[in-house]
UPF0261 protein BR63_08630 (Thermanaerosceptrum fracticalcis), 405 residues
Amino acid sequence: MEERVVVLGTLDTKGQEFKFIKDVIESAGIGTLVIDAGVKGTPYFQPDVTREEVAQAGGSSLTELLAKDDRGEAVTTMMKGATEIVKKLYAEGKVAGIIGMGGTAGTTIGSSAMRALPVGVPKVLVSTVASGDTRPYVGVKDITMMYSVVDISGLNSLARKILANAAFAVAGMAKGRVEVPEDEKPLIGATMFGVTTPCVTKAREYLEEKGYEVLVFHATGTGGQAMESLVEAGFIKGVLDITTTEWCDELVGGVLSAGPHRLEAAGKMGIPQVVSTGALDMVNFGPLDTVPEKFKGRNLYKHNPTVTLMRTLPEECKRLGEIIAEKLNMAQGPTKVVLPLKGVSLIAIEGKPFYDPDADKALFEAIRVNLDPRIELVEMDTDINDPEFALYLARSLDEMMQAQK
């Protein structure tokens, strides 16, 4: 069977809309494979994979789900089943892309299956909740979410335009895929923020000249999670963790946390890592009026109309230093920590809004005191964006990578 676009959803409540999507994709010259994740009603048209098969793959049966009449359990079962079926189809070489659609239930089922597919496989999800917080659905995968604008309930004139756009989008992705040749360059993961861009750019350019391919991740919570997921999957062979700022949001309560396991993956996998303290001077919030009331008296900086930064206090920096040391002390591979004594970001140097020597001192001292002596600690009398600092980080990682050959 040739590769086809998987059309995944509930053919009872959204059957007419899915039939429309199927027809549009096929009109573009791409085959489809329809999976029915509905439970109660009658399918609007005959799928390639029935709801009975989906329920069974999810560890139950359609008869059991109907007898229990528990919507939550039904959605969970069909989500698990659809995910297992999509994974199996992909392993068999039958998936050229995937498209889903729905409200919270349809979005949950569709996004679960999409997250099970590798990065690079086309994924389009039309959703009534796409204009809100999409992190639970997208995770660390390249899912394209399209807001439905109106509820998905029939084929009105606006819905037809939106669904056609989504169908043509996934068809175009599937039809126009670019095959990237494997050039065997070792992959390095690096973390960056706007306030550490000069450092990361200089280090990246040096490493690329040395024959590495550098994947730069924006340290926005999902960025750190994405990098660490690729480390755990074995793709990334070395880490230049310049920007560890996501720990500020996890500790203090900002909006860009990467969770409590950030800084663990490279150490667990035993791969070389060079770590610094980039942007540990800031906690992230949305627009100024969204900053929690308890922080209104703090040192706040309007980064842009949608992002407000808050300077970390000395006691917070002390705890951040302890956490970084705790995480890196677990490392099973080569690890080096490099401290920029004159500032951890573009706005934390002397004369800038977040310049705070006491906070930096608390951060650095906590790392010195708590870091395992077996881990090399280097201190440089520069700020983090000094070219000398950036090149030292890059050279250090290159040396560690070369030593492992």
Summary: The chain has two domains: 4-175, 187-403. The chain has a mean pLDDT of 95. The first strand starts at residue 4 and ends at 9. Residues 4-175 form a domain with the Rossmann fold fold (CATH 3.40.50.12020).
